[in-house]
Amino acid sequence: MQLSERITGITGGGSDGWDVFLKARRMIAQGVAVTELTIGEHDIRTAAPVLQEMHRTALGGHTGYAAVPGTDALRDRVAARVAARTGVATTRDNVLITPGGQAALFAAHMAVCDPGDIALYIDPYYATYPGTLRGAGAIPQVIGTHAEDAFQPRVEDIAPFAAKARSLLINTPNNPTGVVYSRATLEGIASLCIAEDMWLISDEVYDTQVWEGAHLSPRALPGMAERTLVVGSMSKSHAMTGSRCGWIIGPQDAIAHLTNLATHTTYGVPGFIQDASCFALAQGDAFEEEVAAPFRRRRALAQDIFAGQNIVGLVPAQGAMYLMLDMRATGMTGEAFAYDLLESHHIAVMPGESFGASATGHIRVAMTVADDVFAHALRTLLDHAALRSAERAAAQ
């Protein structure tokens, strides 16, 4: 029997960019000690009080079907948080609770794109983006950025594609680059969306991890609240990756239709997960800063380690839990260097090419291991890059 083109074509017929990660996991399964600097998974677990609240409410009976758009308590809590952070009036009617940010990304594109519509996204991108757009029936159109711009999108690069597009997906703070989009960048994108009548889908799951500057939600810009869907999540801000609780913020009419979609697909998020998420959000900014603190600390550690060399370039790490490193001085692609590092030193990183052509010659390093392990891995990485760069110079 033949499967649908929608499902068989999700990865575009090629690799989905996870080959190095999967090889590292196979090595670990075989008993090899590997330092994993690959995926965005906290090295701390979900805080005990949050788990205790989850346990309490589950034992209390909140284990049946929960309200599909989300419990009123959680939607109110999310709306209040968004309103306080952005200054945009937000109520529960602007909020749909989803099974994590990934489900929100898919639902958002289902809401704004019909089959065959062009959906724009920025390169470098989180590895699931193009498959998510294909899964929603859209035609993915990638927009490249430039390392010399620290991967800030240029409006003039987006504009030629905007007239025929239905939506634009952005992510700030950005995974994989760690770049926080500037006000000028976002104002330019907003002006283009208004001029071309495009929807903007803004992935803001790293909004609590900002190390330099400030996060600006484009929904707060003039004329954008009615054409922006914001994706958020408990995963990164509260170390609740496995709980699968996220949300979409958008116009009331869009949320009503997205609730219909959820009724026919996910049918909501477990009530005890929502209760625990509500409890976690109620702990306020101090709790979120505590979750983010290890990444802030390791970023500073990395900056000190990289300061004494000029072979590996550190893309300005303004936010998120990653470092994007420029490896082009070694003469190797990001993928080749990642495989080489894994085989030579059992250190696993993600090739830049996993996140698009714009990141060719780069690697992404997740700051998700203990400080001493992280520092040792970075120094080993730099030594290995220096060796490969010297070998390249000698061969020329």
Could you give the topology of this structure?
Blueprint: H1 5-8, H2 19-29, E1 35-37, H3 48-59, H4 72-86, E2 95-98, H5 100-112, E3 118-123, H6 129-135, E4 139-144, H7 155-162, E5 165-171, H8 183-196, E6 199-203, E7 228-233, H9 234-237, E8 246-249, H10 252-263, H11 271-282, H12 284-306, E9 313-314, E10 322-326, H13 334-345, E11 347-351, E12 362-366, H14 371-395
Parallel strand pairs: 1-11, 3-4, 3-5, 5-6, 6-7
Antiparallel strand pairs: 2-8, 7-8, 9-10, 10-12, 11-12
Helix pairs in contact: 3-11, 4-11, 5-6, 7-8, 12-14
Keywords:
alpha/beta, Aspartate Aminotransferase, domain 1, 2 domains, seven-stranded mixed beta sheet, five-stranded mixed beta sheet, 14 helices, 12 strands, 43% helix, 15% strand
CATH topology of the largest domain: Aspartate Aminotransferase, domain 2
Q: Can you identify the CATH class of the largest domain?
A: Alpha Beta
Number of strands: 12
For the biggest β-sheet, the strand order reads 2-8-7-6-5-3-4
Can you say what the CATH homologous superfamily of the largest domain is?
A: Type I PLP-dependent aspartate aminotransferase-like (Major domain)
SS summary, helix count: 14
Shape, per Cα inertia axes: globular
Q: Kindly state the percentage of residues in helix.
A: 40-55%
Mean pLDDT comes to 96
Distance between the termini: 55 Å
Strand content: 5-15%
User: Stretches where pLDDT falls below 50 for ≥5 residues?
Assistant: none
Task: Tell me the Rg in angstroms.
Answer: 21 Å
Structural class: alpha/beta
Biggest beta sheet attributes = 7 strands, mixed
Please identify, by name, the CATH architecture of the largest domain.
3-Layer(aba) Sandwich
Number of domains: 2
Order of helical and strand elements: HHEHHEHEHEHEHEEHEHHHEEHEEH
InterPro entries: Aminotransferase_I/II_large, AspAT/PAT-like, PyrdxlP-dep_Trfase, PyrdxlP-dep_Trfase_major
GO molecular function: L-aspartate:2-oxoglutarate aminotransferase activity; pyridoxal phosphate binding
Cofactor: pyridoxal 5'-phosphate
Protein name: aspartate transaminase
